[in-house]
């Protein structure tokens, strides 16, 4: 199957060609036709499966090919659990709208509220948002969703885990009309709250389950090295970095302090290194991710803030300097490599 089989607008096909994307992944093959049909969708797929385009392409095709329900309200709202994931999706969306007259904007927590209100007043067609900040703007009547045509929830399970259930319900209520289509993506459909919220948000949805969200990605080679103590673990890490060839590397640590300490140590050893943790201001986090995605650094040392959603195709190695507390988080961490059919490596340093 090729993207031309979906009868997409030529501008979208040209953009995909420019991005070097030729063949749809399994989740794209199954989800895009449902999205294009106008039916609601409840979908699950393993990490790195290419699901972002599985909802962006139907959204773009709908906006291009149909008349708006409202001249002012956003036509498409895309909700995501974290600012980093929202920035990634917004980046892909900007590529798709680049050759069209359609406007897209992002509404994220940690950024200037009044500036966002001014942008909303310009009547964007697409809004990419985190639920908390979007709900705040709704409460202040900075936007209305009466004319919303497509509501997309990505990583809905994590939005619920982060406590956004009430905000999702408020957003759903503001856009509750018969002509709205809803696409919900989750790492797993085996999640009690997911089924509850889906019953409220979705109308007779089609179900697409490509593997399971926590299933092993066979494109990733996994290794474990045992360490006796911290110095041994750091020596193992230095040996890996000096003796193996990789495009870009993400190293996961347990705490912000470990992130800063390890990044400083690696930089002093001559490695081009950036660090990312939750105590940074949003502008600084955006700058770090932008620089890393453009290849200005080879190594990113981070906490679990970067374990989900980031679509960095040049990352060929993930190292767990500290092991995560939960198996599910391990899957999401190593899923930063081996994305969309590429091969990747994952190394875990296990010790005290």
UniProtKB/TrEMBL annotation:
Q: Where is the DEAD-box RNA helicase Q domain?
A: 1-29
**Residues in Helicase C-terminal domain copies:** 236-352
Instruction: Specify the domain of life of the species encoding this protein.
Output: Bacteria
Q: Which CDD domains match?
A: DEADc, SF2_C_DEAD
Q: Which Pfam families match?
A: DEAD, Helicase_C
Give a Gene Ontology cellular component term annotated to this protein.
cytosol
Q: Which PROSITE patterns match?
A: DEAD_ATP_HELICASE (PS00039), HELICASE_ATP_BIND_1 (PS51192), HELICASE_CTER (PS51194), Q_MOTIF (PS51195)
Motif Q motif in this chain: 1-29
The Helicase ATP-binding domain sits at: 32-207
Q: Which UniProt keywords apply?
A: ATP-binding, Helicase, Hydrolase, Nucleotide-binding
**What GO annotations for molecular function exist for this entry?**
ATP binding; hydrolase activity; nucleic acid binding; RNA helicase activity
Keyword Hydrolase applies: yes
UniProt lists the family membership as follows:
Belongs to the DEAD box helicase family.
State what protein this is by name.
ATP-dependent RNA helicase, DEAD box family
Whose protein is this, by species?
Answer: Shewanella violacea (strain JCM 10179 / CIP 106290 / LMG 19151 / DSS12)
């Amino acid at each position: 199957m090729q993207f031309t089989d979906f009868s997409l607008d030529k501008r979208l096909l040209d953009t995909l060609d420019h991005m070097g994307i030729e063949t749809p992944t399994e989740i794209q093959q199954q989800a895009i036709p449902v999205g294009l049909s106008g039916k609601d969708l409840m979908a699950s797929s393993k990490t790195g499966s290419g699901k972002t385009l599985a909802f962006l392409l139907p959204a773009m095709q709908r906006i291009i090919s149909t008349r708006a329900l409202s001249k002012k309200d956003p036509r498409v709202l895309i909700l995501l659990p974290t600012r980093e994931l929202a920035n990634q999706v917004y980046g892909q969306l900007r590529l798709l709208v680049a050759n069209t007259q359609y406007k897209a904007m992002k509404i994220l927590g940690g950024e200037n509220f009044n500036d966002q209100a001014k942008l909303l007043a310009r009547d964007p067609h697409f809004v990419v948002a985190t639920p908390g900040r979007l709900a705040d703007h709704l409460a202040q009547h900075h936007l209305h969703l009466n004319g919303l045509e497509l509501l997309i929830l990505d990583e809905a399970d994590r939005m619920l885990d982060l406590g956004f259930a009430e905000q999702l319900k408020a957003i759903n209520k503001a856009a509750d009309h018969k002509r709205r289509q809803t696409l919900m993506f989750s790492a797993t459909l085996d999640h009690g709250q997911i089924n509850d919220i889906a019953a409220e948000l979705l109308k007779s949805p089609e179900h697409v389950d490509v593997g399971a969200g926590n299933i092993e990605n066979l494109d990733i080679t996994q290794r474990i090295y045992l360490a006796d103590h911290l110095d041994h673990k750091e020596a193992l890490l230095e040996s890996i970095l000096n003796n193996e060839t990789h495009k870009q590397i993400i190293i996961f640590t347990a705490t912000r302090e470990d992130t800063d300490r390890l990044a400083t140590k690696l930089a002093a050893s001559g490695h081009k290194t950036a660090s990312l943790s939750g105590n940074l201001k949003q502008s600084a986090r955006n700058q770090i991710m932008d620089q890393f995605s453009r290849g200005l650094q080879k190594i990113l040392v981070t906490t679990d803030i970067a374990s989900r959603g980031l679509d960095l195709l040049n990352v060929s190695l993930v190292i767990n300097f500290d092991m995560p507390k939960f198996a599910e988080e391990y899957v999401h961490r190593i899923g930063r490599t081996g994305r969309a059919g590429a091969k990747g490596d994952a190394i875990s340093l296990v010790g005290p």
